[in-house]
Amino acid sequence: MDPREFRNAMGRFVTGVTIITAEDDAGTHGMTANAFMSVSLDPKLITVSIDNKANMLGRVRNAGKFAVNILCNHQQDVSMHFAKQLLKEEPIEFGELSGVPIINNALTNVVCDVEREIELGDHTLFVGAVKDIVMNEGRPLTFYSGQYGQYEVPND
């Protein structure tokens, strides 16, 4: 099977858009990601998937903690900034939650300690033990078939 065909097929699953943030000795870093999921309610665990070639892999590993920032529909520019899709990048001002950098005004910020990492294929899964959460009002930014979109609440 052609890798592009597989990627295109996986792109047909509509997802939210997140920024993974972490801080190490080199500073605060972020990465756009849609490979995120809840794993367990008891204990509270989530997982993110990071390409083994991504700079963020070593940063999360070194930090031992990270945040998943679920973006609001008005934060497409933030996603594009961390995906390096903007022609002119503006600096991002980070907030902080439980000692971890977060994206301000995100729909949800989830702070985790790295519980476990599992290398599978060309990615590493980081299982995070959830330590803190902040939720804000708004609607999620979505991603489908290579395009950003917005979720519309039925009968709203």
From TrEMBL:
GO molecular function, one term: FMN binding
Keyword Oxidoreductase attributed: yes
Family annotation (Pfam families): Flavin_Reduct (PF01613)
GO biological process, alphabetically ordered: pyrimidine nucleobase catabolic process
Family annotation (SUPFAM superfamilies): FMN-binding split barrel
Transmembrane annotation, as ranges: none
Occurrences of domain Flavin reductase like (ranges): 10-150
InterPro entries with a match to the protein in the record: Flavin_Rdtase-like_dom (IPR002563), NADH-dep_flavin_reductase (IPR050268), Split_barrel_FMN-bd (IPR012349)
UniProt keyword terms in alphabetical order: Oxidoreductase
Protein name: NADH-FMN oxidoreductase RutF, flavin reductase (DIM6/NTAB) family
Origin organism lineage: Bacteria, Bacillati, Bacillota, Bacilli, Bacillales
